[in-house]
Amino acid sequence: EPSEEPSEEPSEEPSEEPSDGPIEPALYYNLSDDGTYYIVSGYQGDVTDVVIPETYNGLPVKEIREFAFHGCDTITSVIIPDSVTTIKEFAFSYCPNLMSVTLPDSLEIICSEAFRNSGFTSIEIPDGVTVKKSAFYECESLTDVVIGENVILEDSAFIWCDNLENVTLGNNITLGRDVFETYNKNAYMNYNAYDNALYLGNSENPYMVLMSAFDYDVSSIRIHEDTQIIYYEAFFFCINLKEVVIPASVTVVGEDAFYECLNLTDIYCEVQSQPEGWSENWNNGCDATVHWGATP
User: Fold this and answer.
1) Half-sphere exposure of 60 (CA within 13 A, CB side)
2) Where is 109: in which H helix or E strand?
3) Residue 119 in contact with residue 35, Cβ under 8 Å?
4) β-strand pairing of 197-200 with 192-194
5) Is 48 left (phi over 0), alpha (psi -120 to 50) or beta?
6) What angle do CA 140, 143, 147 make, to 5 degrees?
C-alpha cells in the first residue's frame, strides 16, 4: 500500500542548488553522478506554465528528481521534453492546480506516487513506459486515460482515481493487480459490455481485456473471441457460474481469475496446453475440471 504521507518533505530551497543558480527562473538542476546528464532537482517561483528544456549547459535533461515539484500549487501545466526518461517518486505529487501534463516519447519510467493527488483530468502514457506502483494514486480529478502500446502498469498504478471514466488500452499491455481500483468500485467507468462481462480495450479491439463479470450473479458467460487478457479475479465469487469457454485468443489469465466460483464444474480451453502467459494460479480456489483443446 502507498504511504499515507510522503516519507520526506522537500526543503524550502532546492537541496543541491548548483552555483550558477536557476535557469528560466524557477528550475534548478543537478549533474548526474557520471556527469553525462542533468536532473531537474527543484522549482521555485510563480511560473504557472512550466516548460522543461531538453538540455542544460550542453547536456541532456534526463530525469526529474524526487519531490522536485512536490506541493507546488502555482503550476497549472508542465511540458516534459523528449529527453527525459525517468520521473522519480513524488516528483509532481500534491500539485492540485496542475491541469495539463505532456509526457514525452522518450519516457521510460514513472516512479511510485510521482503524480499522487495531482489535479489534471486526462493523461496520455506514451508507448513502452513502465508505470510503477501507485504512480497516480488518488488523482481524483482524473477522468480520461490513454495508455500506449507495450506499457507496463504495475499494481495499483491508478488506484483511488474515483472519477475515472474512460480508459483506452494500447496493444501488448501488462496489467498488475488493482490497477484501476476505486472506493466506489469503478462506478463511473465506461466499460465495453459483452455477454455478462465488462471489458477494456481500444477502437480496434474493445474487448481486449476482460476486467470482470457484469455482477456476481451471472450464471453463464461467453468470452469474446478477440479477448487477449482475463484480468485477475475477473470472475471472483461468481457462485452461479457453471461452465466457461476460454477462446484461443487469450494469452494471459490473471491470478485467481475464477476464485470462489463454487459451482463452476467445467472450464473449456481452446488451446492445447496452458500458455506461458497464464498465471500459475489462474484457476486457484476453483474445483472445475479443465479441458484442454476442447469446446463443449
Assistant:
1) 12
2) strand 109-110
3) no
4) antiparallel
5) alpha
6) 115
Q: Residue holding cell 506461458?
A: 276
Helices (H) and strands (E) in the chain, counts: 0, 23
Q: 244 by DSSP, 3-state: which?
A: strand
Q: Against a cut of 0.85, is the pTM above it?
A: yes
Helix or strand (DSSP H, E) at 198: strand 197-200
* pLDDT (tens digit per residue) in 44-65: 888 899 999 999 999 999 999 9
8 vs 286, residue with greater confidence: 286
Residue with cell 458467460: 221
9 burial type by CB count under 10 A (0-12 exposed, 13-18 middle, 19+ buried)? exposed
DSSP-assigned states of every residue in 66-108: TTTTTT--S--EEE--TT--EE-TTTTTT-TT--EEE--TT--
Q: Give the residue among 20, 64, 73, 19 at the shortest CA–CA distance from 44.
A: 73
Q: What are the backbone dihedrals phi and psi of residue 41, each rounded to the nearest 5 degrees, phi first?
A: -110, -15
DSSP class of 240: T
Nearest to 122 by CA among 97, 142, 140, 94: 142
Tell me, what amino acid is at 160? W
Long-range contacts of the stretch 264-270 (C-beta < 8 A, 24+): 264/238, 264/288, 265/289, 266/242, 266/291, 266/296, 267/243, 267/291, 268/243, 268/244, 268/294, 268/295, 268/296, 269/293, 269/294, 270/245, 270/246, 270/294, 270/295
